[in-house]
Amino acid sequence: MSLFSKCKGCKSVHHLDSTKIRNVVLLSHSGAGKTSLGEAMLFCSGVINRLGNVADGTTVSDYDPAEIKRQISINLSVLPYEWRNCKLNIIDTPGYPDFIGEVQAGLRICEGAIVVVCAVSGVEVGTEQVWGYVSEANLPCFLFVNKMDRENANFFGVLKDIQAKLSVKCLPMQLPIGSQKDFQGVVDLVKRKGYVGTGTQLREVEIPSSLAEDVASYREKLVEAVIEVDDELINRYLEGGEIGDDELYRCIKEAVKQRKVMPVFVGSALKNIAVSLLVDAVVDHLPSPAACGAVKATNIATGAEETVEPVADAPLSALVFKTVNDPRVGKISYFRVYSGTISSNSQAWNSEKGTAERVGQLFVVRGKTQEPVAQLVAGDVGAVAKLTVTATGDTLCAREHPLKLPGINFPQPVLNMAVHPKSRADLDKMSTVLPKLCEEDPTLRVQREVDIGEILLCGIGETHLEVAAERLSSKYGVEVNLGLPKVPYRETITVPVKAEYKHKKQTGGHGQYGHVFLELEPLPRGSGFEFTERVVGGAVPRNYIPAVEKGVNEAKAEGVLAGYPVVDIRVTLYDGSSHPVDSSDMSFKIAGAQALKKGLAQGQPVLLEPVVNMTITVPESFTGDIIGDLNTKRARVLGMRPADGFNIIQAQAPLAEVLRYAIDLRSLTQGRGTFTMEFSHYEEVPSQIAQKIITQRNQSQ
Ligand code: GDP
Fold first, then answer.
1. Residue segments in the chain with a per-residue pLDDT below the cut of 50
2. Contact 618, 646 (CB under 8 A)
3. pTM here?
4. Which of 25, 54, 90, 91 maximizes ligand 1 atoms within 8 Å of its Cβ, making it the mutation to test the pocket?
5. What is the C-alpha separation between 476 and 459, in angstroms, rounded?
């Protein structure tokens, strides 16, 4: 009977204890074969009876139209299946750097990782990146050298590359039998046996004589590394004693858990060679939630930190790690249970929101299929539809024991694009649909820029935002174009001036009369706009002064150079005159506005532009290129300090020059650089550049 169906009856759910679960995240540079590997795993387990293909768009994991179109994974997907009486939750993640949020969510909820490396390309930029994340998360980790069947596949070359660029602790557990079109299987270094064949149809064979020497030497390296976890075995080994396979297995498991060894496996996902042996190793050597022990959580009621045990009869704690808005089903929340048991048709407490949630039918998701389950225990992963307030990162728990698990380390958005709806109807729908999109993707943000009259979509990169725009269309029927956002320029004056305006219309009927003298003074950057008055003797009657201020304020919204808002000046109303019958609020408002315009024109106006502070982190070898590029962007480098093979560069640059910096930095550093940016201050635009901006703006208006 299947583990899933056991859950349905609900009687024997505790058979599925946390020692029998493995949560494993697949990571790699884009295209190394994660999705294909996930597919081969499902095929080996018998969950699917036809091996899907990325090129045909038929894999279980990549079913989203945007994924099929681009042939890349965009969403993490959960692939649960059974293997040797264990439940495996394999999390396939996107390799493309724009979707790193999904990778972070996958890393957060797993006890182990498999880093897939292409046997032809070796360690790529994305491999180093995911390696960094795995190391940061301190996750036990396997490597899988994939595509051994491909022309130019070179296991030993790639192994050298892995040990040089990732870690010397990456040691083979297997060696390939044959290579490229002759790739047939692997030698298991622990068992000292060869296995050839595809899927689960494996045949045990003698170790080919050409490999005998390598098998002996790599086995020795492995044994020496793993027995480090057991002093007694080290002594026995040093004295020339034998170490049994079982003892070795125990040591491997512990060495993997302590990250003393990262075993390297080899195979072909496409041909389904040696994949089943990799899955065996997942069950044998990667830790279960139970083996990893308690995790930390905060008790919301007491504020105290608690440890949460991965057992089924503890109070519930479950972390929501992904939210999907399905147009048919509604909102689906994916969660990982850390302690206790969650049941279908029950109540849970959202500790973040302080609200009860009705938990309907639970299910396990596999690609686009959903299987209902009655309960899920500590360590397991599942989903539930239609939670009302729960968002990604929230903890579901028991009301009487409110817990908050640590959230997910999502990266901040770095690229902003303006969203231009294609029609009025699209504009109307945007305000309800954009928040839904952001709910699904915490690395996406919507920002309303009242100032420039634009709605900005902020994300990780160009592809990320393009996919978001496509999703708006395919999921919600809202059509938009994306463009670079406008720069919020400002205008100001550079010399103090006085300006007079008399608004007078006294021909026939009720006349109009308002007359003001204004003084305009430049203020330091960042001061804003001030209005004061020092009218004496009622030259402008008190009751009209608010009207003058209103006129000035309205007029300052559009400067005289290019219609940008005016800042950093003080306007003082100091004189004027009035007419006992013809003066009115309206007349004084017009006089105030016109006097301001006159003053601005005389005050040698200039254009101001926003300048941002940037912190750019790049590998040392890219520093020269980055600084050279910053110089072409009118930036000032303020400082630099080294940190662990990287340089952290502090700079200031005009926003107009760095709107596309997320794209530029990625191409300059092959994706190895990161940066943050925040508004600093406004500065005068150099006159030649200002002239261009003014001409362009006046042409477009
Ligand atoms: P992902 O981006 O890491 O998920 O990689 P995919 O699974 O999408 O694979 C990228 C491409 O490599 C696809 O065209 C696969 O068919 C191909 N591929 C994956 N695994 C293998 C393999 O073992 N051998 C060969 N020859 N091609 C493979």
1. 1-15
2. yes
3. 0.84
4. 54
5. 19
